[in-house]
Amino acid sequence: MTTDAAQFGTRGGPTLETLKTHPSTTRIDLHVHSKYSEPSTDWYLQRWSIAESYSDPFLIYENALKAGMSFVTLTDHNRIGGCLLLKERYGDRVIMGVESTVSFPEDRCRVHLLVYGFTEREFAEIDALRKDIYEVRDYLRERNLAHSVAHATYSVQTGKLTVGHLEKLICLFNGFEVINGGRNRSDNVAWRHILEHLTPDCLHDLCRKHSLEPFDAEPWKKGLTAGSDDHGGIFIGRTYTEADAGGTEEFLCELKRKRTSPGGRHSDYQSLAFSIYKVVHDFSLRSGNGAPRTLLSRLTETLFEGKPLGIADRIRINRLKARSKKGAKGTYAPFLALVEDLGRRRFGTLEEAIRLVYTRIAHFSDGFLRLFFDSLKQNMAGLDFLTLAGNLQASLPGIFLSLPFLVTLRHLNENRALVERLTSDLGIERARVGHRVLWFTDTLNDLNGVSVTLREVGRLAHERGFEVKIVTSVAASELAGMPPNVLNLPFIHEFDLPYYESYRLKVPSMLMSLKEMYLFDPDLIHVSTPGPLGLLGLLVARLLNVRCVGFYHTDFALQAREIIDDESVAHFLECYTRWFYSATDEIRVPTLRYMEILEARGFDPKKMRHFSRGVDPDLFKPGFSSGRAVLRGRFGIEGGITLLYVGRISCDKGLDFLMETYALAAERRADLNLLVVGDGPYLKALKARPDLKRVCFAGKIPHEELPAVYRGSHLFVFPSTTDTFGKAVLEAQACGLPAIVSDAGGPQEIVVHGKTGLVAKAGDLSDWKAKISHVLNLIDAAPSAYGKMREDARAYAVEHFDWEDAFASMLGEAPFRATDAEKKIA
After folding, report:
1. How far apart are CA 790 and CA 394, in angstroms?
2. Which residue, of 9, 486, 556, 762, is most buried by count of CB atoms within 10 Å of its CB?
3. Is residue 628 located within the same domain as residue 760?
4. pLDDT at position 19
């Protein structure tokens, strides 16, 4: 059975009949490789002696014509043997071509240069000169040879290419490939945008900067080409260059006159992995080394040759099933279904085959990861590390088949920042103004400060038309009331966070999630939590080569020290969170005090930056009388003075200390109430305390109902020493409720001591009792002074914690605002 692209079907591109009726329309794939290419310089291909391509030139020729190409060329690396064979047989239907590896002599940085229409002698002379790109350029000008710099923004040697090299290329050459079928759309589009916005002044400055002579009299006008850069024989003719020309000579003239039009498909990480599968498959067919067959080899045989699974294959897969832990029965089902569908050719086009392979491999990988996390949960409790290691080994097939997609995703985005810098240096406006932001969080539907803040950020971004998506993973039933710009990822596993029973963390499907991230094409990653979603955010940032900003909302290590008597757990969390945030490009911290704390604990101060938080002044506003009615009607609090706590009910919040403080204060005042709002793992233990007489536990109430609770209370008490900010403190102050907070942690920055509330010594019962007594005395003996404190609390919160300022502070860089036209295109 043939292994060429014809078996998948073709779409797009004119047929030979169309070209006959429109002889002036010439279309050619200007970048194709065959088995005559020079051996690869990629270390991983060299390691296994895998060639750049195994495609036969004559099959390439046939497939190019089937795809609607008028003429055919081969651009093998530094070789023309395949092109000569085609030229000998097909004459004028073939254009001589080569992809020459040329070097900047000053630092040996290599780039790939496509050259067309040369003679054998001219090729030999170019090949002799290619160690010096300047001499090659002069030779092309002297001989008037058509050329195009291939995938200019791709670094042939990892990390070697710089903005300076790109600037020199712009000065030196007139033709550039702007749609490379092996590069992704964003990379191609960004490079084309730069070339199409060059100006005479820009070229003059660049040539003077690098002491270079421009190629012609109008060097700011560039010729644009496109080619598939096909190595596996499956994308031939899908990317092409068009010109109004009736023959090869006319086409070459149009190419030199810079009057060609690029068109066709761009690549993505899925199709690039597909190409790698094909080259590896072709290698295995030709190597004949008797190596044992793997799941990948079985997959590629079925995919590219239509071979169904044999009896021996099915026996081996059944053995793999048997080796897996109990419950692995369905793990191999996606793989078997994939092979069956491919064997029966249950797809119409190449693109459909690629998506089918990706989806089934994603499910296959998810199955193994699900097994691993299940075993992790079961065996960590019993310290059964041998079983755990065995299940990790059993998961390797899923990881192995996923790996090519991770590699290609990173490969396609290696030089993204390079293009951004060049655009900025040349003073060219970006192709899209602003940034697309993905904001990752493991918690979004809880009543904590992180969730509330991110829901508000999402809502504001959506209302303003900004391209910001809040990325989380929850059950579909939990999406009610969420902002419409929430990107909810499918999850494969969930578990309770130890000592945080109200938090149920989700492990998202990696490959299916990456697909969503790639389609959104973010410019910036924000991460608010260091859980599974946060780790995914870090991974996405590294694979897409975009900046990652970490928000330090919660001090898990300090909370752990307060919750459990195990320093090893706290130490582990401290090391983990420090590693996590060190992996980000920037750390944003909600208070200056906590920036000092983190610096003392080893966090990099150069990475840290303060960000503001905000409060909705229309929702959280004063109204004492209406609030008192709510407290009386809903919680049965009749008369007296009410102290209020709002937050998570957990040991780390200092609630035992709060109860003792309240008991001391209540000794002096019998009508003193304490209203505790919130839920958490410590709620049951608190309720069981025998010494709580006028204490009301309201439990968890909706966020939009909190203002009434704040309004009806007299004093907000928040003894926590582990909070980085204290969202509830800010909300209370916005409602005109004075607050007493500890002098440890972040909440002290929200309270202006003596004006909007008081700051008490952390853990000091006598100081807290004195501070509470001071406010109670104001209520009784100086109501005007107490009223002024309420007014000042409201004024300070509104003035210093405006949501508009907070919104801009958290985003940091202007997000992208999609126009109506752009939304339609998307």
Report:
1. 63
2. 556
3. yes
4. 42
Same domain, 206 and 87: yes
Write out 273-289 in H/E/C secondary structure.
HHHHHHHHHHHHHHHCC
Q: Are residues 470 and 382 in the same domain?
A: no
| Residue 432 DSSP one-character state | S
How far apart, in whole angstroms, are the C-alpha atoms of residue 216 and residue 202?
15
Instruction: Indicate if 178 and 315 belong to the same structural domain.
Output: no
Residues 592, 749: contact at Cβ < 8 Å? Answer: yes
Asked if 211 and 276 sit in the same domain, the reply is: no
Report H helices in 704-764.
706-712, 727-734
Q: Name the helix (H) or strand (E) containing 630.
A: helix 624-635
Q: Are residues 71 and 107 in the same domain?
A: yes
Q: Confidence class of residue 380 from pLDDT cuts 50, 70 and 90? A: very low
Q: How does DSSP assign 117-141, residue by residue? A: S--HHHHHHHHHHTT-HHHHHHHHH
Question: How far is the C-alpha of 720 from the C-alpha of 430, rounded, in Å?
Answer: 46
Q: How far is CA 426 from CA 197, 198, 460, 555, in A?
A: 10, 8, 34, 43
Of 308-322, 348-362, 478-492, 610-624, the least confident? 308-322
Q: Looking at the domain assignment, is residue 2 inside a domain? A: no
Dmax (CA) for the chain in angstroms is 107
Q: Let me know: does 8 contact 234? Beta carbons within 8 Å.
A: yes
Nearest CA-CA partner of 514 in 273, 265, 192, 331: 273
Phi, psi dihedrals of residue 647, rounded to the nearest 5°: 160, -170
Which long-range contacts link 476-484 to residues 24+ away (Cβ below 8 Å)?
478/445, 482/444, 482/445, 482/455, 482/458, 483/455, 483/458, 483/459
pLDDT one-digit tens code per residue, 52-90: 889 999 999 999 999 999 999 999 999 999 999 999 999
* DSSP H or E stretch at residue 548: strand 547-551
Split at pLDDT 50, 70, 90, the class of 382 is: very low
How far is 263 from 25, CA to CA, in rounded Å?
Answer: 13
Q: How far is CA 647 from the centre of its chain?
A: 32
Q: Please, what is the angle between helix 133-143 and helix 163-172, to 10°? A: 20
The number of angstroms, rounded, from the C-alpha of 744 to the middle of its chain's C-alpha atoms is 35
**Exposure string over 249-269, b if 16+ CB within 10 A, otherwise e:** eebbbbbbebebebebbbbbb
Q: 242, 13 in Cβ contact below 8 A?
A: no
In this predicted model, what pLDDT tens digit does every residue of 97-145 receive, in sequence order?
A: 999 999 999 999 999 999 999 999 999 999 999 999 999 999 999 999 9
Domain span at 657: 624-801
Beta strands in 562-628 (DSSP E): 586-589, 608-610
Return the CATH number at 512. 3.40.50.2000
Residue 51 backbone phi and psi in degrees, to 5: -80, 165
The tokens describing 554, both together, are 């919660």
Q: Are strands 715-718 and 641-646 parallel, antiparallel or unpaired?
A: parallel
Tell me: pLDDT of 220 over 90.
yes
3-state secondary structure of 28: strand
Q: Which of 442, 479, 269, 475 is nearest to 362 (CA)?
A: 269
**pLDDT tier, 324 (very low <50, low <70, confident <90, very high otherwise):** very low
Structure-token pair, residue 67: 């795809």
Total domains in the fold of the chain: 4
Residue partners of 225: CB distance under 8 A and separation at least 6: 30, 31, 114, 148, 175, 176, 177, 178, 241, 255, 260, 262
Q: What count of other Cβ atoms lies within 10 Å of the Cβ of residue 611?
A: 19
CA atoms within 13 A on the CB side of 581: 30
Residue 301 forms part of a structural domain: yes
pLDDT tens digits for range 666-718: 988 889 999 999 988 888 888 888 777 899 999 989 888 999 999 999 999 99
